[in-house]
Amino acid sequence: MRVALLGPTRVEADDGTPVDIGGARLRMLLARLALDPGRPVPATTLIDDLWGDQPPADAQNALQSLVSRLRKVCPAVALEPGGYRLEIAADDVDVFRFERLRAAGLLDDALGLWRGDALADVRDAPFALVAAARLDEARLSAEEDRFADGDLDVAELTAMHERHPLRERLAGLLMRALCARGRQSEALHVYAEVRRVLAEELGVDPSQELRDVQLAALRGELGPRAVVDRLPVRLTSFVGREDALARVAELLGGSRLVTLVGPGGAGKTRLATESAARHPAHAKGRVWFAPLAGVRAAEDLTVAVLGAFELSFAADPMRRSADGMSRIVEVLAAGESLLVLDNCEHLVDAAAEFTTTLLRRVPNVRVLATSREPLAIDGESLCPVGPLAVPNGQTDVAGFGAVRLFLDRATAVRPGFRLDESTADDVKQICRRLDGMPLALELAAARLRSMTVRQITQRLDDRFRLLTSGSRTALPRQRTLRAVVEWSWDLLTDPERELARRLAVFPAGADLAAIEEMCLPDAFYVLTSLVEKSIVDVSEHGEPRYRMLETIRVYAAEQLASSGESREITARFRRYYRELTDRWEPLTRTARQIEAINVYEAEHDNVVAALRGAIDDGDAELAAGLLGGMFWYWLVKGDSNRASASIREVLAFGDRLPADISAAFGALRLMMDAVPGTPPKDEAAAAIEDCVRTGAITSFPALGMVLPMLAFLSQHKELAYREVRRAAKSPDAWTRAGADWALSFILNEDSDLDGAEQARDRAYEGFAAAGDRWGSAMTLGMKARSVSETGDNRAAIALYEQGLALALELGSQDDLIQHQWRLAVEHARLGDHAAAARVVDEAERFVREIGNDELAAMVLYAKAEVRLSSGAPADAHELSVRFKQAASTLSLPSEFAAEWAATLDARIALAEGRYTDAEEAVAVVITTTSARGDIPDLAATTELLAQIRHAQQENDVAARLLALARLVRGRLDLGDPAVRQLVAELGDPKPVDLAKKQAVEEIRRVAGVED
């Protein structure tokens, strides 16, 4: 919990949620306790501080009652023998955070905590007057300190002086600011006014300090003074490191040694330079910059630092280090100072010794170092400097640090360059593939002098030849990308180079066990040394994983190839991941599913690389094994495009594949190609028989679900029932659950709604018992849709929410959005439009964070449905247009996208009274749904057509359509308020004595669909 008193009293929970405290007396009590955080305040003190000399008759009981009320909203209030205590840390109260930041010299941060007058809403409390006065004085003093240490802003100082005309220090600062701008006469007028007011109101003369300022102004000693800038000249804008600047400033406020650590090309030197330029010592001319990149011998380090001070000496060379340090100490000890030591990595031992000596001998110096590894001395604070933020699939990328830097440097060499539809994809790819590393991005941008951005993107595989056009005035190791990496590589020991080149085999990094199995036994200490030297990054979310930036990995791969080890290490790599997927694939359908998914998440790019390599090298058996181990994970996570493409590539091996694998992949390919259409009936039947003949059905549990569905979708119902019966006899519980899941579709089409519901219940129980959240969530969604059709929207919402919780746990993006979509629509069907909008907003936030444009298009559609249901057809129309535009550029199935769009357009046209347009759109949907035999969607569209006919005053036709919809589905969708309203107006439709096929044909005729 956090308490804010620097303004109106405000309380926030740990997650940032505001806490409503209540009335004035409760806020007074909380504020008083917060002024002594973590310490008991005696009851007698609280009574005096809250009621003063007018306490209530039973003050102790009144206080106890007040505390009891406060604890209901603020449980952190505790009763102790010494009184009442607010159990929070001092830093959780903005008053004490202000004091800490002020003491650290972080005045902007400290003053940024103020939101108005201190204790603004509790100043009627007796304790508040003294406390508020003390805090107001502290705020004024901090503001004065900020001006004294930084820029003297005339406008701000004038405003403050007018509010506090008797504060002499403030008047002196204003006088200095005016003189610095050549306004001496105005400064002297300020002095005269202050002297007059002091005499009239207090009967005193100005202080000696203010008289000294007046005298200096009269002598002309306060004119503009040039700041001595010893930092390297900044010729380009500083982009993308604003947060890092704040972090460095904070670290320098609390530590005397801050080391910026990161790989070559990360921008450590520029960040150090910008940080030093903003440090208070710079305005006083007391910042020095010592470049060490050109220093080769450790004993020359002191001489290099002396050069930064423009000092030299002619003493005995044998004593130059000691004499040099003495002269450096003499300069730095003259006042608060900052020394920047740039590029320490190749002299790290000497730099550590030098810095230790300097910090010990000069108490008022701070050191800002840059290095590819820490100096590793006491008191060092590390500030990692890594890549700039890069986009990861997002549409709006202009705010990412890497993109901002690339655009800034690109427009410098090609003024007409812009981020638009023609360049955005290439810019995103450049930023991502160059890891967001500033130097690499600058070198790439420089290539725009002679190349297009597309040509640059196409040549990133040859990045070391491409990125060679750095500044001629830069250090040699910063002029080309290869030189940057070689500088770091040359600093490694032989064992470090051996491990580093072998690590190139891992595109997604690896854990220690994998590294030791494939690269180097007992690798831990060599590996941690590579981390220290910024060759390898480590992620410690769970089991530590080690990875290289892509540019370093490309260089390491070159070294691996030239070492002659590449074939052996690559073979180990592929075998390892074949064994890993063999081990974990069965667990993706068990109670260990989350654990398995996490393994796949971490190792995904490694397995893909192994699969890609096996395909490219023609290793059919290995490729098939890796694909078999990966396919179900892709399906669960919704990555069907990758799964489908990989299946096609592996099937291209033909007879080189084992028969059962070929049959299984053939059936899976047909199934994936069919969605949302209808698979060729004969081809589907042949694929199913191949799976039976080869025994694939026993090797691949997923086929227990896939084969019945393939038969069902290809309209081969008897074969579908046969495969359901076969799968239902499987010894595998998950396969039996999959069979029931498929059976529910078949029974639903046969209008056996009770049987379908029972099959879904068995499927859910089976998936839940197996521990499969994916199957459980999917089945809950189906159950929710069925329950909704009965008119019980609330029960459907509960089921959708249950499925959504499982999808969140699983991390399946597709399933998550699907559940949020359906949940939002169900809230709208219930009439709770506010809840529907909240769910859509959550979905929008999610897709923005993950940057998935296809899911973003689906959320657009869901939002359009919700807006239409809430009575805003114009909003829905605008969202429909945006959905169709997005769908045209994405890999959404074109038939589904067109069908969804037509359904929405029909509903919008109906709401707007454009009945002809609505009819035309409905005809499109009835054409596609009837052609593929999608009975639920056909029935829903028939109900929509009935609404259109009713609006056209064709009530007999509308009633007939309702009857046909009930016939083909088995019931009407009474969860839809529009359908309920239509039934209420027309009456319950009479039964229709037709076969389902005839009913479908009649629906098509009424819709005007030609056969």
TrEMBL record:
Q: Which residues form the OmpR/PhoB-type domain?
A: 1-88
Entries under CDD domains matching the protein: BTAD
Q: Which residues form a coiled coil?
A: none
Q: Which residues bind DNA?
A: 1-88
| Biological process per Gene Ontology, one example term | phosphorelay signal transduction system
Matching entries from InterPro entries are given as:
BTAD (IPR005158), HTH_77 (IPR058852), OmpR/PhoB-type_DNA-bd (IPR001867), P-loop_NTPase (IPR027417), Sig_transdc_resp-reg_C-effctor (IPR016032), TPR-like_helical_dom_sf (IPR011990), WH-like_DNA-bd_sf (IPR036388)
- What's one Pfam family the UniProt record gives for this protein? Trans_reg_C
Molecular function terms, GO-annotated: DNA binding
Entry keyword annotation includes Lipid biosynthesis: no
Keyword field: DNA-binding
Q: In its keyword annotation, does this UniProt entry include DNA-binding?
A: yes
Task: Spell out the family assignment given in the record's similarity comment.
Answer: Belongs to the AfsR/DnrI/RedD regulatory family.
Q: What is this protein called?
A: AfsR/SARP family transcriptional regulator
Q: Which organism is it from?
A: Lentzea tibetensis
Q: What is the lineage of its organism?
A: Bacteria, Bacillati, Actinomycetota, Actinomycetes, Pseudonocardiales
